[in-house]
Design goal:
The complex is a heterotrimer of chains A (317), B (325) and C (391). Chain A is 42% helix and 11% strand. Chain A has eleven helices and eight strands. In chain A, the strands form two sheets. Chain A has a six-stranded parallel beta sheet with strand order 2-1-3-4-8-7, with helices on both faces. In chain A, helix 1 crosses helix 10, helix 4 crosses helix 10 and helix 5 packs parallel to helix 6. Chain B is an alpha/beta fold. Chain B has twelve helices and 14 strands. The mean pLDDT of chain B is 95. Helices cover 25% and strands 27% of the residues of chain C. About 7% of the residues of chain C have low confidence. Chain C contains seven helices and 18 strands. Chain C is elongated, with a radius of gyration of 25 Å. Chain C has a six-stranded mixed beta sheet. In chain C, strands 1-8-6-3 form a four-stranded antiparallel beta sheet, with no helix packed on it. In chain C, strands 5-4-2-7 form a four-stranded antiparallel beta sheet, with no helix packed on it. Chain C has 391 residues and is of the alpha+beta class. The chains are: A alpha/beta (317), B alpha/beta (325), C alpha+beta (391). Chains A and B meet through helix 5, helix 6 and helix 11 of A and helix 3, helix 4, helix 5 and helix 10 of B.
């Protein structure tokens, strides 16, 4: 898991670096500093369990086990990317790995996750569905509609809120009087817990407990992970809205540094940690190199996959 | 045996639920039969899981249906009025329609959204609209608008089997229309228009309830020696330009009729396509008949005054041909 | 205030279709009965059509270059007559998608020189190498539609030798003449020496701007006088001879047709009340109608009303020829070229300028003796010195 944290961190650092060089189309959103939530939750998921994430989803997709190079290639818009360059950073899908999608619309993924859970429930499959979302999504009607419906239908869906204190550029206090996202669970009678999302063992334990209730058929669970976005809302965000002191304090809370301290205290050798970090570095570097060398999609394929059959397209091509 | 539009829809759903275990119905009140009774009795037969009542949460239930479709179900979602599809727009437009494309073809959304549209009986401005053209504007969606009970039967079954997100627009004025089904008739493929009446002087293009008005108009015109061909489009996306082209190449004149307001309506798209693709066939300007740019009023006199009728089509054709009205 | 329809009148004997050249009034103009209202191009010429009622021109239904049939409604005039005094305008044919459009005209139509046509009409015309400008459009605003091109193609498809509208009209008229009018001829040579001497004399006394006197002017006056003296030929035969309704309708005044040869046919403009005018005035009127016949700009009534025509093929013409009657007229005089001939005069051989006249007469109207008398009297006048020059 230490290596997994590093993989996400390094992967996103590369995204950040290449985005700054103009190699990444669009506006990728990074989750640097929030890696522990992705790793701690996804550690309990099988390949058949499905995952829906938000615009800030690179970490979740990697933690679920998607291929580094294919994911990076997608973020670069390459033909060998997960979605053949059609989706990009905000729309990562890796169906065979249970990553059913990232969405660029805040709160747009929650009902889909509930629907996937309904499909599992209706067909008697024991798989579960996980939806990652930011605290900003709680202002959307779809959040409340979905919580209500999921609770009513006792759907096996885990709602994981990454409460990084910022909804895009505006702090939580300016968004809502309800500072604790978990307080929304009570009226719908959904079990919930608010935890330190930057502490991997805490996340791991809480996710284990939550997912167990789901697998027992007890209905949905809302896990609120307090975390910290160490970078801006998107790559290039100058973050004028955060103080220098605040940014410095965030470094202290870095989930990787915290896990490293814990592991060293538990007697794990520094060399072993360095080796894991180095492995992650090599893996990611290889993936990034491979993705950057990957072919770009051919313009002639631009109308592929709008519909299954070109006959349905029916428009002047 | 003659059956109403509603009974025939129920029969189609019943048969598809029986035929394919992955077909599920969901929507507000569907277990109780739905607002118009289309699904009456189906929950008893197939159980509450297969015929699932939902809260009044159009955004969530459209998302749930989409998510379930991603995971192997073939949901048939009922949105009680197309006017309420506005509440599900994010999901339909940003998620449902784009999944296949954004995933690079990894995923499909075999979802049918049944909804009901059009003006009748003083349903007024928020329960009478014809908003189908909005959905024509979204790549990835299929838009079907049947014109009769028998058509609805075949098209609904084809839509359920299509494997794409389909907006299936039923017109409330057709709900009481009765028709007999032809036994073992082949299901119409999605995307193939039908010649509802053959003619030689002018092509009337319509869909949904306006097909009946167009046929009425054609009958009236035939009395003054004008032979009108009526095309029932059946689907707006995809648009069957081949059938349109074949007809226009024979008649060289077109009137497009729909109940929706003319501004930005389906007729605008069809007219543009004809103008571009069939320009050299035209012997007269492509003409549209539709609602004036106003909400649907409540009072029966006002509703009647606003809605396009067969006489409006007749007048449009006469003007096109330069014949006294 | 009430609206009355303006309809296409029948112009000439065999008119079927006419093409609108232009309106002489605009919508909103006041119109008086008898005032020129529009110009139509018929098989024979462009004719001015006069208003038959007074009022305000309210709506124009036929645009320039569009075709119309006799009886087609082409405009509405608002009159001051009370409603009840008016019989409803006849409804146009119910089943005719081909009839005139009913859209109100746009003011700028006439100034727009572009040929309005539909895409399919243009395509079909291009495929068959047909000039759209030669096709009159039946669509709104005179737009050339597919049916117009196909009608034109239908005509072309009959191959080389297809009839022009004028040739068709002539063919019909002459066939009708030959088939229905029993005709016989009488001939006589006229000594032109006196006439030519007088022509020079009279012409010398004319104002410079006046048209020169021609032999035709003398022929017109002489025929008019003869017809007044022998009015049996100044009439038209009407109806089926075996029908009790058959009539010989005498004319009021002398109205003479003068055959004018054109490149692809001929026209017979009519000079009315020839008996009222001296040679000078006849020359002026003759010159005017001949000129306008050559231009195709004759008015409707200038093609109608004659009982008798004169055909003179001129100095380069044949010695003598016979002409066919132009129905419903009763006779036609064919004048051969003037030439010097050796004649016996009081036992002496002389050379005189002679012109051979051949008169064709409708046998239903008159017989040989009358025709002979007519020709004799005509020759006498032509060879005499009794001419009315002025007035």
């Amino acid at each position: 898991m230490y290596r997994a944290l590093w993989r996400i961190r390094l992967f996103e650092t590369h995204v950040q670096r290449l985005a700054a060089k103009g190699e990444v189309p669009g506006f990728p959103h990074l989750s640097i500093g929030q890696e522990a939530v992705a790793v701690g939750v996804c550690a309990h998921l099988t390949r058949e369990d499905v995952l829906f994430t938000s615009h800030r989803g690179h970490g979740h997709v990697l933690a679920k086990g998607s291929d580094l190079q294919a994911t990076f290639a997608e973020i670069l818009g390459r033909e060998s990317g997960l979605c053949r360059g059609r989706g990009g950073s905000m729309h990562l899908v890796d169906a065979s790995n249970g990553v059913l999608g990232a969405t660029g619309v805040v709160a747009g993924n929650l009902a889909l996750a509930a629907g996937a859970a309904w499909a599992a429930q209706a067909t008697g499959r024991k798989t579960i569905s996980v939806a990652f979302f930011g605290d900003g999504a709680t202002g959307a009607g779809a959040f409340h509609e979905t919580l209500n419906l999921a609770a009513l239908w006792r759907l096996p869906v885990l709602f994981v809120c990454e409460n990084n204190g910022y909804a895009e550029f505006t702090s939580r206090e300016e968004h809502s009087n309800v500072t604790q996202v978990s307080s929304f669970a009570a009226p719908y009678r959904i079990p919930t817990k608010t935890i330190d999302g930057n502490d991997l063992p805490t996340v791991y334990a809480a996710a284990h407990e939550a997912i167990a209730t789901l697998r027992n058929g007890e209905g949905p669970y809302l896990l609120e992970c307090m975390t910290f976005r160490m970078t801006g809302h998107y790559v290039g965000d100058a973050q004028h809205y955060r103080s220098k002191e605040e940014l410095a304090a965030l470094k202290e809370k870095c989930p990787i540094e915290r896990l490293q301290r814990q592991l060293l205290q538990q007697g794990v050798a520094q060399a072993e940690l360095d080796s894991l970090a180095q492995q992650a570095t090599d893996e990611v570097q290889q993936a990034v190199d491979g993705a950057r060398a990957a072919p770009r999609p051919h313009p002639a394929t631009v109308l592929d996959d709008v519909y299954r059959s070109p006959a349905l397209h029916g428009t002047p091509g | 045996m003659e059956q109403t539009f509603i009974e025939i829809l129920r029969r189609a759903l019943d048969e598809e639920l029986s035929r394919d275990a992955s077909v599920y119905l969901l929507g507000e009140d569907v277990a109780a039969g739905g607002a118009f009774g289309v699904t009456r009795g189906l929950a008893d037969k197939f159980g509450a899981q297969r015929v699932r009542n939902t809260p009044i949460s159009e955004a969530a239930i459209t998302g749930v249906a989409t998510g379930a479709a991603l995971c192997g179900l073939k949901p048939v979602l009922e949105i009680m009025f197309i006017d309420f599809a506005t509440l599900a727009m994010d999901t339909l437009v940003n998620q449902t329609a784009k999944y296949r494309y954004m995933s690079g073809g990894q995923l499909a959304v075999p979802l049918v959204v049944r909804t009901q549209a059009g003006a009748a009986g003083g349903a007024a401005a928020q329960h009478s609209q014809s908003l189908e053209s909005w959905f024509m504007h979204v790549p990835g969606l299929v838009v079907v608008a049947p014109s009769s009970p028998a058509e609805a039967y075949g098209l609904l079954k084809s839509a359920i089997r299509l494997g794409e997100p389909v907006l299936f627009v039923e017109h409330k004025r057709l709900y009481t229309m009765k028709e007999s089904l032809v036994d073992d008739a082949e299901l119409p493929p999605i995307g193939l228009a039908r010649i509802a009446r053959a003619g030689t002087d002018v092509t009337l293009i319509a869909y949904s309830a306006m097909v009946r008005s167009a046929i009425d108009a054609a009958q009236k015109l035939s009395r003054s020696g004008i032979s009108a061909e009526v095309i029932d489009l059946r689907t707006l996306v995809p648009l069957d330009m081949a059938t349109i082209a074949d007809s226009v190449a024979r008649t060289h004149r077109v009137v497009i009729a729909h109940e929706a307001v003319l501004n930005g309506g389906a007729g605008a798209e069809i007219a543009a396509r004809i103008g571009t693709e069939l320009f050299d066939e035209l012997d007269a300007p492509v003409t549209r008949v539709g609602c004036p740019f106003a909400p649907i009023p409540f009072a029966p006199e006002l509703e009647e005054a606003l809605l396009p009728r067969s006489d409006d089509i007749v007048t449009a054709v006469r003007n096109l041909l330069g014949v006294d009205a | 205030m009430t609206r009355r329809a303006v309809e296409i009148p029948k112009v000439g004997l065999v008119m079927e279709n006419a093409r609108l050249v232009r309106w002489l009034k605009n919508v909103g103009d006041s119109v008086k009965a008898g005032e020129p209202l529009l110009e139509l191009e018929t098989e024979k010429s462009i004719v001015e059509i006069e208003a038959t009622l007074s009022g305000r021109l309210a709506e124009i239904l036929l645009q320039p270059d569009q075709e119309a049939k006799v009886g087609d409604r082409v405009a509405w005039v608002e009159t001051d007559e009370p409603e009840s005094a008016v019989t409803p305008a006849p409804a146009s044919q119910a089943s005719a998608p081909k009839s005139a459009p009913t859209r109100p005209a746009r003011a700028d139509v006439q100034s727009n020189q572009r040929i309005r046509s539909t895409p399919v009409a243009r395509r079909r015309a291009a495929e068959h190498n047909v000039d759209l400008g030669r096709i009159s459009g039946s669509g709104p605003l005179g737009r050339v539609q597919l049916q117009d091109v196909e009608r034109a193609l239908g005509a072309t498809d009959r191959g080389a030798g297809a009839l022009s509208p004028m040739r068709r009209a002539l063919a019909r008229a002459m066939a009708l003449s030959n088939a229905t009018v029993p005709q016989f001829n009488v001939g006589r040579a006229v000594d032109m020496s006196t006439l030519q001497a007088l022509r020079g004399e009279f012409s010398a006394g004319l104002a410079k701007e006046s048209p020169k006197l021609s032999v035709n002017d003398f022929l017109l006056q002489a025929v008019a006088r003869t017809l007044l003296e022998i009015p049996a030929l100044n009439a038209t035969f009407s109806g089926d001879p075996s029908s009790p309704d058959a009539r010989i309708v005498p004319a009021n005044g002398v109205h003479l047709g003068l055959v004018v040869a054109l490149d692809d046919g001929l026209l017979v403009p009519v000079i009315h009340h020839v008996e009222r005018f001296g040679l000078t005035e006849l020359a002026a009127r003759r010159a005017d109608v001949v000129e306008r016949a050559l231009q195709g700009r004759l008015k409707r009534d200038e093609l109608e009303g004659a009982t008798f025509s004169i055909s003179n093929l001129g100095a380069d013409g044949p010695d003598r020829f016979t002409a066919l009657i132009n129905p419903p007229q009763s006779a036609i005089l064919a004048a051969g070229r003037q030439r010097d001939c050796v004649v016996a005069n009081n036992g002496k051989i002389e050379v005189r300028p002679l012109c051979e006249l051949t008169l064709t007469v409708d046998h239903r109207v008159a017989d040989g003796r009358l025709a002979s008398s007519f020709l004799a009297r005509l020759a006498q006048i032509l060879e005499g010195r009794d001419w009315r020059v002025d007035g």
